[in-house]
Amino acid sequence: QVQLVESGGGSVQAGGSLRLSCAASGYSFSSRCMGWSRQASGKEREGVASINGGSGVRYADSVKGRFTISKDNAKNTLDLQMNSLKPEDTAIYYCAVDLRSWDCSGAYSFSNWGQGTQVTVSS
Q: Looking at the DSSP assignment, which residues form a beta bridge with residue 41?
């Protein structure tokens, strides 16, 4: 049974930083495409960052240079370091995995998501 459990959300002022973590279980962690998506109130869910089985990374243009995705294959954890946060980053952030893919070729097309964690950035 696939489980993805996020932690680390919260409230911060613009310009601040937060680090999200995701504890994963129930599948072969190191060999699957993983990532983070977010959904702001009234908007569709969008991909933020992904990391493939070879640790190749991809970022949405809106977060490039500010967010860093990383994973620890020994601990089965996925992190998202978010710096220089802006009010428009306010959203529920979801840890995600694509059980069908190693290389993230689907461009933020994930098969499973965690329950989400709220990030609120005030101006």
A: none
Distance of CA 101 to the CA centre of its chain: 16
Q: Quote the pLDDT of residue 88.
A: 98
Rounded Cα distance between 52 and 14, Å, is 30
Report which of 116, 112, 48, 47 is spatially closest to residue 85, judged by C-alpha positions: 48
**E strand or H helix at 69:** strand 67-72
Tokens 């995705």 map to which residue? Answer: 69
CB neighbourhood size of 66 (10 A): 15
- Please report, for residues 28, 63, 82, 114, 118, the alpha-carbon distance to residue 32 in angstroms, rounded to integers and kept in the order given: 7, 22, 23, 15, 25
Average predicted confidence (pLDDT) for the chain: 96
User: Residue range 58-67: average pLDDT?
Assistant: 97
Percent of the chain residues past pLDDT 90, beyond the cut: 94
